[in-house]
Write a structure and sequence with these properties.
258 residues; alpha/beta; six-stranded mixed beta sheet; four-stranded antiparallel beta sheet; 11 helices; 41% helix
């Protein structure tokens, strides 16, 4: 297993006691697989994904265990977690326009991941940023590298976020709602691109989504979350064919209706 999570709980302090957001969830992620965490808004799925990289809110209270490649991540010093983020664990956030710095050219932001980890600098980092933009199938990557985030389309911004997440060569990619707000055609292209990069780079992917169509397209195994807890977990085909939890069945029914 590349990742093992045990009894993970995340809560927020308030008068009268902590408010639980994630409640004693456990799961394993196998090396090379696409592991999908699905649930409605507020189910705790994004908070779970961000906690793996040590990005849960500073106001939260976290307990349990998160082991990545046999190393305990929970309560690890932030300096160590910063060294791991990008280099070993890549992240794609929900909102690429909000996540990209509006006053930096796209290429500079991608190259910064290399500079931050001491993997390249100067012209070499800039060249590798252009190469990575080309690798994620952005037309005219040299031009896009000099553009600002607002000057490129939503689909291109999402591809730029993928380039930024992967340029330092991580083995685990956490993608939080990477197809949100994309039309059907661009969404299909994005999923195809992620699958291609997974094969090329030997990636393990944790994909967080509320979209059952995405689950059906890419998942090897599924974790269904409801109200901060595990509703069910297992192989994608089995859960899609015969869900054991009423919430999972309702999710699939709502997807068919929509």
């Amino acid at each position: 297993m590349i990742l093992s999570v045990r009894d993970l709980s995340i809560g927020f302090r308030r008068p009268g006691g902590d408010l639980p957001a994630v409640d004693k969830i456990s799961f394993d992620v196998r090396e090379g697989e696409t592991f999908v965490i699905i649930g409605e808004s507020g189910s705790g799925k994004s908070l779970t994904g961000m906690s793996i990289a040590g990005l849960q809110p500073a106001t939260s209270v976290t307990s349990g265990s998160i082991r990545f490649k046999e190393r305990e991540l929970l309560n690890r010093p932030d300096t160590e977690l910063r060294r791991m983020r990008g280099r070993e664990i890549g992240l794609i956030y929900q909102d690429p326009l909000g996540s990209l710095n509006p006053v930096w050219p796209v290429g500079d932001q991608i190259a910064e991941a290399l500079r931050a980890h001491g993997l390249a600098s100067g012209a070499a980092a800039a060249r590798r940023a252009v190469e990575m933009l080309d690798r994620v199938r952005i037309p005219d990557p040299a031009r896009v590298a000099t553009a600002y985030p607002h000057e490129i389309s939503g689909g291109m911004r999402q591809r730029a976020m993928i380039a930024m997440a992967l340029i330092a060569g991580p083995s685990l990619l956490i993608a939080d709602e990477p197809t949100t707000a994309l039309d059907v055609t661009i969404k299909a292209q994005m999923l195809e691109l992620l699958a291609e990069l997974q094969r090329e780079m030997a990636l393990t992917i944790i994909l967080i989504t509320h979209d059952m169509g995405v689950v059906a397209e890419v998942a090897d195994r599924i974790l269904v979350m409801y109200a901060g807890r595990v509703a069910e977990i297992g192989d994608a085909d089995a859960i899609m064919r015969t869900p054991s939890h009423p919430y999972t069945a309702a999710l699939m029914t709502s997807a068919m209706i929509s």
